[in-house]
Amino acid sequence: MGESLWISHGATEAAFRGRSFIAVLPLALLLPTVRVSTQSIGSPLDCHKTCVCASNIVSCSKINLTNVPITLPQYTAVLDLSFNTITKLRAEWTPVTLDRLHSLLLSHNGLTFLSSEAFVNVKKLQYLDLSSNGIRQLDEYIFEPLEHLEVLLLYSNRISQIDRTAFSGLLSLQKLYLSHNQISRFPLELVKERSRLETLRLLDVSSNRIKALSLNELMALPAWIKNGLYFHNNPLPCSCELHKVVARWYLKELSSATDFRGSHTCLLPGQQKEKIAIMDLNKVYLNCTEVISMDKIAYLEQSLVLDCDTRERNMMKSWVLPGNTPVSPACKTAVMRPDDGSLQIGPLKAEDSGVYTCYATSESFNETVYVTVMVFNSTEIGGLENLKTAYTTLIGCLVSLVMVLIYLYLTPCRYACCPGQGLEKSDPRDSLHSSTVSISHAHVEKGQDRVVGGGFANKHGAFLQPKDQLEQNGRLNPIGEEEEEWQRDTRERRRSDAESVSSVCSDTPMVV
Q1: Beta 343-345 vs 334-336: how paired, if at all?
Q2: Are 147 and 169 in contact (CB under 8 A)?
Q3: pTM value > 0.85
């Protein structure tokens, strides 16, 4: 009886132990899940042992965090999570909205993933540091909620792909750092007119893999954008156009050129791809033309617009004309445009040549811009007008030559000796006025016989006969007339002969 009771008690104890094991087993299986969930959500904020909380600043740097701490105070303005091991920034990293958070630091964390909704609850951010991580791409509209963001640091990542809409919605962005990545395309849409971020004044894409630049579009950018456009230390091919761009920026003392003059390099053509400073291309290698100044060339009666292209935006501007004469409303040939501060001058005169000075001022910066204008003493289209004049003269000469040829070869013959014409077809008046020389019938027949024979075919001719065989008004000149009358007749015949000869083509053979 006692043994049976002992056995029953042992069986009951064994059964109880089995049930305990079965009950504890599911709990044990759930522990890893709870641990993973805790790791993905993060541990509660501890301002005494791990983080430092100073007023509205929360600093949790260098404590080997794998997730963002939860239960962050809603009054947090600065959150420093740098130098940890947070590899993913999920949408639920902060379950509550942090309306006062304006600075978020996540550098040196090994971040490789950014959720498309990672910034939904921190829309008032002004400063975001994602530098020195492992980010490879920026997806579409990733930063769209951050319409108040002013500074975005993305340098020292592995970014090779950037969606064209990645920076859409950043209406207040002023500085964007993309250096030391693997970017191969220059994001021109960020600074180009009509698509650029209106407030952006610094774009750093240096030390990437960019091999091509749209140099003409870069030159067309205003100076306040070019002053903060950094593209040095990229594998750009050397060219004189590239040298011209950098040299002009250097002459204008733009910070992007002067601060990194030695880092503006390019690759020479060839297999070795030798790297050389862009500013040295005008010396030995490509023999590029040295850029000295940016003068304006103009012509008489032309109009010009002089830009006061300053390194800062929205500055107060004023102009001074050559001779240290300020621009005033009374001046009609020099008018300052109120929209951009440029100066319109013209119609220009020769005395308008000189240096035009623009003074630009702001609360923190003053700048002076000099524009040299050279007015040539000719019109802009003077060369074309001279060409038109020469062309007209040439046409006139050709027309005159054609008219002479028409006169020489197509004018009807009016002489009795012309081919195919008989004596009866000759007009006595033409014969009288053209030569006043009458030919005897015998000689006419003889001359006609010679024409028929081919002696003077297709030629105009004038036959001068000896004095004793000539007739005057159809009568023979008597040998016994007075010498004075004979001489007068001789002078008249000579004058008539000269007129006849002058009316004949220059290639007409003369027969005496």
Answers
A1: antiparallel
A2: yes
A3: no
